[in-house]
UniProtKB/TrEMBL annotation:
<keyword id="KW-0472">Membrane</keyword>
<dbReference type="Pfam" id="PF13365">
    <property type="entry name" value="Trypsin_2"/>
</dbReference>
<dbReference type="InterPro" id="IPR036034">
    <property type="entry name" value="PDZ_sf"/>
</dbReference>
<keyword id="KW-0812">Transmembrane</keyword>
<dbReference type="Pfam" id="PF13180">
    <property type="entry name" value="PDZ_2"/>
</dbReference>
<dbReference type="GO" id="GO:0004252">
    <property type="term" value="F:serine-type endopeptidase activity"/>
</dbReference>
<dbReference type="InterPro" id="IPR051201">
    <property type="entry name" value="Chloro_Bact_Ser_Proteases"/>
</dbReference>
<feature type="transmembrane region" description="Helical">
    <location>
        <begin position="53"/>
        <end position="76"/>
    </location>
</feature>
<dbReference type="GO" id="GO:0006508">
    <property type="term" value="P:proteolysis"/>
</dbReference>
<protein>
    <submittedName>
        <fullName>Putative serine protease PepD</fullName>
    </submittedName>
</protein>
<keyword id="KW-1133">Transmembrane helix</keyword>
<keyword id="KW-0645">Protease</keyword>
<feature type="domain" description="PDZ">
    <location>
        <begin position="320"/>
        <end position="383"/>
    </location>
</feature>
<keyword id="KW-0378">Hydrolase</keyword>
<dbReference type="InterPro" id="IPR009003">
    <property type="entry name" value="Peptidase_S1_PA"/>
</dbReference>
<dbReference type="InterPro" id="IPR001478">
    <property type="entry name" value="PDZ"/>
</dbReference>
<dbReference type="InterPro" id="IPR001940">
    <property type="entry name" value="Peptidase_S1C"/>
</dbReference>
């Protein structure tokens, strides 16, 4: 039976040695206006000392530096979730290490020889291109670049320097002119053989299209012996059997070089085809035409040597086309000319010249101008119903 006394004494420390006990001392009464003494928990963390602060800062700095280095290394190695972009490849060669036959190598070779020409005239300033052909300062360009001017031109070189040039001579019908500057250290171009070109050969057009100097565009030879009859209203009619290319050519390219894959000049960029109406500004549509360099070189030598160019003629006047067989009809034959000496007569219809078909009177004139005086060409013609061949030795005109 449980004792009532014992149950009342369960919390009495004097009776139960295991009961918790505490000694309470009554607090003294506070005086008026005084504050109670602050109480601090002895188990609470204390305020850090100076040594603890320094040690904590040092540890934090070391951890931050180690973490930053690790992240940087991981980023540079493509780690930490950031992928390495692009495939690994050999380092691109410097310009001086380009292969000579590469497009960059060809451009590097030819650009120092290409110039920009500015010519003042009553209509303002016209601009075109040209290229150095002799160490003495002769520069080839188009006649239509310098025509209408004062006989002088400002020549701007590849390095940005300039010099005054003088027009030595020009041939409007072949659209070629020669300008000369007094300057040393010029680098002439290397000439190629335009007769050796084939459709599909790579070419570069170099010049200053739309006043953008030192511009290089690339393409291929898209046709050969494309007969051209060009000219401005009231001006001369120009004939030539052109090299057709799809390299981008625009206004300002006129007179600049067309270059083959070995860096040799094979043509003089001269004209473009466009879809715009007369009087509108034409732009490139991939049909550009250059004077073959074999013809241009011959005319240039004539101009430098005599001040004018010889034109190659066949000694006949052409009229319309043939009625049934195509070709071009000879309206008249000069009695002492090359055609008469080969047995051709007025009324004969020329079908082919050295294998090239005749479809328009301009075709015969342009193809004859391509050859040098003294060249022998084969003419296939029709007289009545019979077809015949004749060997014609072309001559220079008497002008």
């Amino acid at each position: 039976m449980t004792s009532p006394w014992w149950s009342d004494a369960l919390a009495d420390p004097w009776r139960d040695p295991y009961a918790p006990a505490a000694v309470v001392v009554p607090a003294a009464p506070l005086e008026a206006g005084s504050q109670p003494e602050p109480v601090r928990d002895p188990d609470a963390p204390g305020r850090p000392g100076l040594r603890q602060v320094v040690l904590l800062s040092l540890i934090t700095a070391l951890l931050a530096g180690s973490l930053g280095s690790a992240l940087t290394y991981a980023f540079l190695r493509g780690g930490a979730g950031v992928p390495s972009l692009g495939a690994q490849s050999a380092q691109a060669p410097a310009l001086a290490q380009r292969e000579p036959e590469s497009l960059a190598g060809v451009a590097e070779k030819v650009l120092p020889s290409v110039v920009t020409l500015r010519v003042a005239s009553l209509g303002g300033i016209s601009e075109g291109s040209g290229f150095v052909v002799s160490a003495e300062g002769h520069i080839v360009t188009n006649d239509h670049v310098v025509s209408g001017g004062t006989g002088k031109a400002t020549v701007i070189f590849n390095d940005g320097s300039s010099a005054q040039g003088k027009v030595v001579g020009q041939d409007p019908e072949s659209d070629l002119a020669v300008v000369k500057v007094t300057r040393t250290g010029l680098k002439p171009v290397e000439f190629g053989d335009s007769d050796a070109l084939a459709v599909g050969d790579p070419v570069l057009a170099i010049g200053s299209p739309l006043s953008l100097a030192n511009t290089v565009t690339a393409g291929i030879v898209s046709a050969l012996d494309r007969t051209m009859q060009a000219g401005e209203p009231g001006g001369p009619t120009r004939y030539y059997a052109a090299i057709q290319t799809d390299a981008a050519v625009n206004h300002g390219n006129s007179g600049g070089p067309l270059v083959d894959g070995a860096g040799r000049v094979v043509g003089v960029n001269s004209t473009i085809k466009s879809l715009v109406a007369d009087g509108q500004e034409a732009g490139n549509i991939g049909l550009a035409f250059a004077i073959p360099i074999n013809q241009a070189k011959r005319v240039t030598q004539d101009i430098i040597g005599t001040g004018k160019a010889r034109r190659t003629v066949i000694g006949a006047q052409v009229g319309g086309t043939g009625v049934t067989s195509g070709g071009v009809r000879l309206n008249a034959v000069e009695p002492s000319g090359p055609a008469a000496a080969a047995g051709l007569r007025a009324g004969d219809v020329v079908l082919r010249l050295n294998g090239h078909p005749m479809n328009d009177p301009a075709d015969l004139v342009a193809l004859v101008r391509k050859y040098a005086p003294g060249s022998v060409v084969t003419v296939e013609y029709q007289r009545g119903t019979a077809r015949q061949n004749a060997s014609v030795t072309l001559a220079a005109d008497a002008k």
